[in-house]
Amino acid sequence: MKDQKAILHKCLKHDWPAFVIAGTDVCAVETMEAYLEIARQKGCNKVFLEDMQLVIDEMKQFQHEEPEHIKVPD
User: For 14-37, what is each residue's pLDDT tens digit?
Assistant: First the structure.
């Protein structure tokens, strides 16, 4: 799985826009699943799609194990 922190740091280094969604966000999993579907439709490669699925699975696991931290963003 790609290092999510490294991707963010690369964007910050180059002053590129980035979208960050925290595992504590109640909308995180649904947002990432929608992105994955769009990525499939746009023809992203298999490795990228598999990597995204791993990130989604990690997010789901976190939210299942730490429900007290999940909240509606404010």
Answer: 999 999 999 999 999 999 999 999
Torsion of CA 29, 33, 34, 39, to 10 degrees: 140
- Whether 18 and 12 have beta carbons less than 8 Å apart is answered as yes
Q: Which two tokens stand for residue 65?
A: 């194990």
Q: Give the 3-state secondary structure of residue 25.
A: strand
For residues 64 and 73, give the distance between their C-alpha atoms in angstroms, rounded to a whole number. Answer: 18
Place of tokens 């966000």: 25
- Cβ–Cβ under 8 Å, residues 26 and 68: no
Rounded to whole angstroms, how far apart are CA atoms 69 and 25?
Answer: 9
Q: Which helix (H) or strand (E) holds 69?
A: none
pTM attached to this predicted model = 0.86
